[in-house]
Amino acid sequence: MPEVTCWDCGLPINLSNRPRHASCFPQHRRADLNAAALNRCTITLENGERCPKPMKARDWCSGHIQRYGRYGDPTFVTGRRANGEMQALVRAAARAVTEECILAPCAHSRPGVIYRGNPMPAARAVWIEATGENPGDRQVLHTCHRGDEGCIAFPHLYLGDHARNMRDMTEAERQGRGEDNGNAELTELDVREIRRLFAARAASQRALAAQFGVSQGAIHQIVTRKTWKHVE
Length: 232
Known about the structure:
This protein is mostly helical. It has 3 domains: about 15-70, no CATH class; about 85-170, Alpha-Beta Complex (Homing Intron 3 (I-Ppo) Encoded Endonuclease, Chain A); about 180-225. It has 8 helices and 4 strands; from the N terminus they run αααββαββαααα. It has helices at about 30-35, 60-70, 85-95, 120-130, 160-170, 190-200, 205-210, 215-225; strands at about 110-115, 120, 140, 155-160. A two-stranded antiparallel ribbon has the order 1-2. The relative contact order is 0.08.
């Protein structure tokens, strides 16, 4: 049977080190809930309500104790990335000294993880694991510009604000440009034709705007190469 790792302290869960886990998941061992309703599990469910089952040990009911022993997290729900694999990857990425990217599995965007009982982006969990600092309102950004591909290597992470993130996006050309931009009203062929007609003095900016169904300002931006710069 594979060894199970505690998602809170990172130590393996077994009979020999059980006392070491006595303080794990403090957010789920609340004295105020215990005082309010004795002998009732102190774990708060996903709907925000307290678990109604009777307490068996560790302030938890038998069901949550079993989840902790099986998955390393008493709040584990089937369907989440299981067995502590992402937690192990987060810890490895937090200790990384390599210049190479460490890519976490992600289906469509940046990978997420349940870290210490809270869902968050995996890169944010790596930052907290490595520094012990909660970024708060700041964003965890990537010097490698591969956050969308799943990179969580700590040497590639730094803190910034939304404006810095947008600048990074532009520098990395992650923003859709030209036809790849969902708001684009023209194609590259249209842009080349607009520039050709304007350079040949075959049509004014106003006439080109009417012909291609855009504003005169858009035509001006195109012919002066303030937009669609990548189109020759």
